[in-house]
Write a structure and sequence with these properties.
Elements (H helix, E strand, L loop, with lengths): L2 H11 L1 E4 L5 H15 L12 E3 L10 E5 L1 H4 L1 H6 L3 H11 L3 E11 L7 E4 L1 H4 L7 E7 L10 E3 L12 E2 L3 E2 L16 E3 L6 E4 L5 E3 L8 E10 L11 H5 L2 E3 L25 H5 L7 H4 L3
Antiparallel strand pairs: 1-11, 2-3, 3-4, 4-13, 4-14, 5-12, 6-11, 6-13, 7-10, 7-12, 8-9
Helix pairs in contact: 1-5
Length: 290
C-alpha cells in the first residue's frame, strides 16, 4: 500500500498497517539483537533500569515483561527508528522534523504474557501539540492467540477517556463498561514478523494475555515532532536532543488547544503494568477474546 493510502487510513481510522515493512534479513537481525538483550535478564532478581518482569519471574527462569528504552541499550533500535518503510509515514504524520520520544519492547512470553487494558497513549504522554504517533514493530509473528494488539477505529477523534479512578489517582486504564465505550468495531492487528502498525496517540488500544505456546514481542517506537514538547517529565536537554531523528535541535515549542489531563498522581510510577494493576475493573479479556 502506498504511503498516501496508509496516511489516509491513519487519518480516517487512527491506525495504519504496513505489511512487509522489514525484510527477512532485518527481522532476523531484530530478533538476534532482542535475544541478546533479553539474555541479560538471567540472574537478575527484580525490576531494574532495563527490565520489568512478570510476577512469575525468577533469576534462573527469566520472564521479561518489558525491555525499557531499548534505544539506549543498543544503537540498532535507534537506527531502526529511521527505517524508510516506517519513517516516511511518520514524517507525513508528525512533520519533517522528528524526535524519538520513547521506545520499549513489550514481551509476552508463551502462556505467561500479561494483558494490557484498554487505554489511550495521550493519557500517558501529553505534549504541547498532538503531532505524535507510535510505530509497533512485530518481532514475532502475531496471531489471534498470542496477545495481539487491538485498536478501536475512529477513537482517535475523541474523546479522551478517563484514566483516573477516585481515590486511586492515575491507573492508566479505561473502565470501558463504566464509560460506555462501544468496542464492537475493535480490530485485531495481526501479521508476520516484520509487519509494522502506526497508531494515533488518541486511538484506544489494548492486548490480551498470551494464551499460546509462542512468544509475542513488539518493539514500540514513539515519535513526536521536534516542536512538540512533553508535559509529563523533566527534560535533560542534551539527552533530549540526542533523540532528534531529522532536522536541527530546537527550543521552539508549538502549542495547540488539546484537552490534557496529566498522568498524576500515580502510585505506580511510570509502568503501565503497575498502574493498571491498581485499576478496580480489569475488563480487557472480558470484552475482547485474543
Amino acid at each position: 500500500m502506498s504511503t498516501d493510502k496508509l496516511y489516509q487510513q491513519y487519518q480516517e481510522q487512527g491506525y495504519a498497517l504496513i505489511e512487509g515493512a522489514l525484510s527477512p534479513a532485518e527481522v532476523a537481525e531484530l530478533r538476534a539483537v532482542t535475544d541478546r538483550v533479553a539474555a541479560q535478564a538471567r540472574g537478575v532478581a527484580e525490576d531494574n533500569a532495563i527490565f520489568d518482569f512478570e510476577s512469575d519471574h525468577t533469576p534462573d527462569q527469566p520472564l521479561v515483561q518489558r525491555i525499557k528504552k531499548p534505544h539506549r541499550v543498543d544503537a540498532f533500535y535507534f537506527n531502526l527508528a529511521r527505517h524508510p518503510a516506517i519513517f516516511e509515514l511518520v514524517q507525513r504524520i508528525c512533520g519533517e522534523h522528528v524526535r524519538l520520544n520513547h521506545s520499549k519492547i513489550n514481551m509476552k512470553a508463551a502462556r505467561a504474557g500479561s494483558p494490557l487494558e484498554w487505554h489511550q497513549d495521550w493519557a500517558f504522554a501529553p505534549h504541547t501539540n498532538m503531532s505524535t504517533c507510535v510505530a509497533s514493530v512485530m518481532i514475532d509473528d502475531v496471531t489471534p492467540d498470542n496477545g495481539p494488539m487491538h485498536v478501536l477505529p475512529g477513537s482517535h477523534k475523541g474523546p479522551l477517556f478517563e484514566h483516573h479512578e477516585p481515590g486511586m489517582g492515575f491507573v492508566g486504564a479505561v473502565d470501558v463498561i463504566g464509560q460506555e465505550v462501544d468496542l464492537s468495531q475493535a480490530v485485531s492487528l495481526t501479521g508476520p514478523a516484520g509487519t509494522v502498525s502506526l497508531h494515533h496517540p488518541m486511538t484506544m488500544h489494548g492486548s490480551g494475555a498470551n494464551k499460546s505456546g509462542h512468544p509475542r514481542r513488539i518493539l514500540f517506537l514513539e515519535y513526536a515532532a521536534s516542536d512538540a514538547y512533553p508535559l509529563f517529565y523533566d527534560v535533560d536537554w542534551d539527552e533530549y536532543n540526542s533523540r532528534i531523528l531529522s532536522g536541527p535541535e530546537t527550543s521552539h515549542v508549538r502549542c495547540e488547544p488539546n484537552f490534557i489531563k496529566l498522568p498524576w498522581p500515580s502510585r505506580a510510577g511510570s509502568s503501565i503494568y503497575k498502574a493498571q494493576a491498581l485499576a478496580r475493573e480489569r475488563q480487557f479479556d472480558r470484552t475482547v477474546k485474543a
